[in-house]
Amino acid sequence: MKTKITALLAVLFLSISATAQIDRSVQPKPGPAPTITLEVPGEFQLKNGLKVLVVENHKLPRVSYSLTIDNNPIVEGDKAGVSSMLGAMLGNGTTNIAKDEFNDEIDFLGARLSFGSSSAYASGLSKYSERIMELMADAAINPLFTQEEFDKEKTKVLEGLKNSEKSVSAVASRVGSALAYGKKHPYGEFITEETVNNITLDNVRAFYQKYFNPNNAYLVIVGDVDFKTVEKNVKKYFKNWEKGIDVTTNVIKPNPNVPATQINFVDMPNAVQSNIALTNNVDLKMNDNDYLAAKVANYILGGGGEGYLFLNLREDKGYTYGSYSSIGANKYGASRFEATAEVRNMVTDSSVVEMLKEVNRIKNETITEEALKNAKAKYVGSFIMSLEQPQTIARNALNIKLNNLPADYYKTYLSRINALTVQDIKDAANKYFKPENARVIIVGKGSEVIPNLEKTGLPIKYFDKFANPVEKPVFSKPIPDGVTAKTVVDNYLTAVGGIDKIKAVKTVHMSGDVKIEGVPIPLTAEVKYMMPNKGSLEMNAEGMGTLMKQKWNGTTGYMEQQGMKRDMTEDQIAEKKASPALFPETDLDMNNVSLESIVSINGEDNYKVKVVNGDNEIFRYYNTSTNLLTQVESTTEAQGQEIKTVVSYNNYSPVNGVQLPYGQTIVSGPQTISMNFKAIKVNEGVTEADFE
């Protein structure tokens, strides 16, 4: 026992002595980067060209199948949208199994199955793995193309285009790609109503036959499976997938970068804020020696909340909720660097100046060692954490094949990150970030932002919502003699149906479809009004019930969302009381109403009328030809930020002798909601209980 105690004391003494000798004022030197041992997926190939990667992971009884067809970029031309139609139609039954029966079995298995025009994904419990694979293979090899399904999908695409007409972010994305790459480039072309109407079911079939084949296809299988069993099943279910003709497409070069910085402006009078994208094209590939340096440089500039852009535009200036940057890599040599922000109209010009300043800063100033250290830590941490997921092993193996990477690309990832120097970052920034050759693409309300943008000294070129060059819009026109705020309001009341018809309206019940930008599930809405000032809105999703309610009984109100009920604030109540829910023109104090100007909205002239409501100003726009209300703008304050809301009205039709809009689009901050009413009833289907 004594010997053991003596030995223990000796060890303790040595430990204390060693600790005492450590100089705490000197930071320890970092050890060598940990060696990464990556599992190598099992691999085999079918005679038809399908390449299969298998990663076994038995921690959970689940399996996933990811199919990727590595086609060259494809130009769809006057039939742009045919690939989207194909992706939407695949996976809805097969020539062997009817659509409803197919979907019912997927649900019964608790599986997921989805398709794109050159991809597919399926997942579920491993005990059903063979059947899930069989259904996926059947859907890929024997798709069910019917005229009925084609017509349904075509209608959905056209409705989606219509709903996005007033979406600032949708227009910004379309115009940005078209100007950067060119409309005839695969990454620059876009879908329009005209191109969709050019597409037939035969076009979809032909696209499938030509491009959806196993020649360049990869099937990645991850989960609780056995390699030999997987190999047997893949050969069983995919062997009949016929190899297609090898198709090579000539990818044209994207548009060159502009010779000097310029603003490309798209006027959208309904915009409540400006969408800014400072962008230039880059030729960056994953196998380039400076790829990691470019990605780290981008992270320091605008990869997150610690980036130069975020700290300036949000934390320091308060111009926006966030400003970020991104840099793409593409093996075909066509990608973009972008610095983006969505900002208030009044600070659009200042935001452009600050964004240019920050991009030039990372090019001209050497970053600190601390900034580089933090960026490296982010990349190293994310990489190590991702290795815990078996999907990462499969994705990395697929990346090596798709991007012509060396076999040890991910084994040496950490050492290459840690070897980066501040000079590497500066060199990459100067090579790929080109503010001196950048387009500053802005989609916003020209009447409010152009005067200050012109003061920046940058040349401004104007484009429409489809990237066609246009002349500088006329943002306001002289008001004709004899036209006043009162005549505009009176003409509106007459156009709607006359004061007697309006007074006969006691209730309105509206129901229809809703599209919220960024929300993929279909929604419906039911809107009810009762004179003089009660309103109800309920939004529903099929199979999920009511997602959101908003009730106003003329005195109090609330909003309920996902089971959380929140009463209206005093300011919201005051705002509701100040204006009738329907036809506020019947109750306006004309002493607080003024005619401001004539402005263009979607190419048509509108009278802009200002209504002062207490401390608030509301702008109402009336079409000069039809005299109908087309748009209402209001501003509220929430959490110290001003939020501008624009409601647009269209598709008027008479109901009980009164013209009512069947289409409404609400843009509030970054969110866009489009409502397409299918039915409107006057003086029926509404009771007092609807507002409680």
The largest sheet is: 13 strands, antiparallel
**What's the gyration radius in Å?**
30 Å
Please give the count of helices: 20
Mean of the pLDDT scores? 90
How is this structure best described in words?
By secondary structure, the chain is an alpha+beta fold. Helix content is about 35%, strand content about 30%. It is built from 20 helices and 26 strands. The strands form three sheets. A 13-stranded antiparallel sheet has the order 19-18-17-16-15-14-26-25-24-23-22-21-20. It has a seven-stranded mixed sheet with strand order 9-10-8-11-7-12-13, sandwiched between helices. Helix 4 packs parallel to helix 9 (about 225-240) and helix 11 (about 310-315) runs antiparallel to helix 12 (about 350-365). The longest helix has 20 residues, at about 1-20. The model is unreliable at about 1-20 (pLDDT under 50).
Provide the fold topology.
Blueprint: H1 2-21, E1 42-45, E2 51-56, E3 62-69, H2 82-89, H3 99-109, E4 112-116, E5 119-125, H4 129-141, H5 147-163, H6 168-181, H7 193-198, H8 201-211, E6 217-223, H9 227-238, E7 262-267, E8 273-282, H10 291-302, H11 308-316, E9 320-327, E10 335-344, H12 348-364, H13 369-386, H14 390-402, H15 413-418, H16 422-432, E11 439-444, H17 446-453, E12 460-463, E13 469-470, H18 485-496, H19 499-503, E14 507-516, E15 523-530, E16 534-541, E17 545-552, E18 557-561, E19 564-567, H20 570-578, E20 593-601, E21 604-613, E22 616-623, E23 629-638, E24 641-655, E25 658-668, E26 671-682
